[in-house]
Amino acid sequence: MLHESEVPLWDHYDVALLDLDGVVYVGPDAVPDAPEHLGRAAAAGMRLAYVTNNAARPPRRVAEHLQALGVPAREEDVVTSAQAAARLLADRCRPGDPVYVIGGEGLFEALTELGLRPVQSPEDAPVAVVSGYHRDLRWGTVTDGAILVASGLPWVASNTDVSVPTPHGPGPGNGVLVEAVARFTGRSPEVAGKPMPPLFEETVRRVGGQRPLVVGDRLDTDIEGAARSELDSLLVLTGVTGLPELVAAAPQQRPTYLSLDLGGLGEGHPRVEADADGTARLGGWHAEVRDGAVRVAGDGDAVDWWRTVAVVAWRHLDATGERAAVDGLRVPGSVSDGAAGDQPGARPRVSEVS
């Protein structure tokens, strides 16, 4: 269930491990108010680490994108799944060992940084294979890499994300490539990126911090990754998670805290009062599950509505094994103030009976 924090999160945690797409930016543009929220967090003394499953872009290019958006970021603040994958290989290979790359620039730079030699020819006698997303990947490169994996070489995948954002909508991600190679070889890779722990471990190694907080918008990568790494997490609702996904979250995909956006870093997080009869209360909102559907009454801040609904729905799911219906539930603060899947766009006080 959601936790309480009587102080702003930036006073309780010393480093934020921030996902990027859906948290800091969406495509080429900043999430509204994200640069300002992050600037205030940095001024309060919180370290900011930008953690991405994207292995295609090296940290330098990611930092340049963030800086252009007004986000306080240096190259050394960015950690990618390519760097986590390179670390896994560096720990098992000797300096200068050749590693076959099914991928592009991000993996080449990450391997070189740790003293390994990236190659794309079987004639270079590679001792391991690493794979990651690259838009212009040649099929011949994939074929040669798959044959090397089939021969028994160690194989590390930067991530298993099924999709990647593109200007034309979601496209196939590295997870699709991993599935193809795994099907051909009958083998599975060691995975470096979220939701597995190596990427968070590499981030703390590089950025430091004693009390990390994972911040993300995806339940199956950011939040589950935090749980696997035994780290606390903050879910923000500026990305892909809507109400249907939130109320259906299994225990390992439930965040420690929930906020509309990155402003939650600078706020306390009140306790949702969960009563023995299955109801939940917070900030003027009262929620229950009746006849299998979530019902909400009261008024208050939009973020407290989300927190109350999440807690009452999770308790119902744990007790019955059934997801509570949210169809037709009015989401306060959404643009249309209507559909359950809409995302909140502001922090108004509203009244509702549903």
Automatic annotation (TrEMBL):
InterPro entries: HAD-like_sf, HAD-SF_hydro_IIA, HAD_sf. Pfam families: Hydrolase_6, Hydrolase_like. Keywords: Hydrolase. Residues 330-354 are annotated as: Disordered. GO terms for cellular component: cytoplasm. GO terms for molecular function: phosphatase activity. It comes from the Bacteria. This is HAD-IIA family hydrolase. It comes from Nocardioides mesophilus.
